[in-house]
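Bench notes, afternoon.
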Amino acid sequence: MPSLFVLRSRIGLAAALLLAVAMPTWADADPDAAFADCLNGLQTQGRSHGISSAALDQSFASITYRPRIIELDRSQPEFVQTFWDYFQSRADQRRTDRGRALLIEHGPLLNRIHAEYGVRPEYLLAFWGLETNFGSYFGSTPVLDALATLACEGRRGSFFADQLMHALRIIDEDGIAPQRMVGSWAGAMGHTQFMPSTFAAYAVDYDGNGQRDLWGSLPDAMASAANYLRAMGWRDGERWGREVRLPRDFDYALSGLDIRKPMSEWRQHGVRAADGGELPAADLEASLLLPAGYSGPAFLVYDNFHVILRWNRSTHYALTVGHLADRIAGMGRLHAQAPAQTRPLTRKEIKEIQQRLVQLGHLDGEIDGIAGRQTRAALRDFQRQQSLPADGYPDHRILEALR
């Protein structure tokens, strides 16, 4: 889903803080009564934001508390999905073929949007394909239910209270009926799964019917996505990145988004195009990513890759968007081959990696089962110390080495 805004309303923050204090008592109280009290507070907050009584009455008449949303928000998968599992299930041939067919079907619209906003059609199709499988599934949760439940639940109450206010304003000002606002369990909406605050800031009425409609109007949805990407700094005429080939003696410690070098320097380090040819003599800075460690594929990524990360912070997502866009535009598959199926690490195993890195003095951070930048940097320190390829990639081999 797209990047999200931070709550700025003092009234909203105060209400959410009160909710955060009250919500832990729900297990001991009547949750329906507690939710009704919370809704009263949110409705009052809506009035203070200038939302009309008609829109508030229409919206709050049907809002329902959904415990399943709390379960989804709190749950974490047991296994951490590998790059190959994520990538192969999303940038597959079926989705590529569908994207190419839609490129022809909607070519005039997408080319017009490209001319106005500077985002090429294949990228818009790639985002659309990953977010809702080209509009085939928006999600099935009423957005107001999702946002109200999460606002009242308390853990991230202030954020979701603010999102609810934006959603109410969409109903009030854009004329979208509450029952049409269906989306993900977290409140993301429409063809491109915008959160309400992203909708408020970047959605456009591209078909000119007086309504910004990300559910029923493909022109609105695609132009809104392009507008959002342009606002985040998308550079027309530049790619997202490319697959590359590394020399046998490459220093894997040079990998990671925190290291940026001109293409000329990557050439000096022996980096070549995936087919073995020379890298282009482009005036670009790039970072090297190894999403499956030193034995997997390697990518040089550019400024547009960082824009994709602002849409969704997952590097797996950003690499998949970029490659799917390439495939839709007519390019081929990755040169790197997926390995035989191996069991991914569990979050418990990643926590063990973090704990052992702390014990060895390499890591000073939270033990959360998520291999973020601090954990990967600590792994590189350990790998260098042990004369191992310093790719910072957590896998079963490094866990055994730490043990």
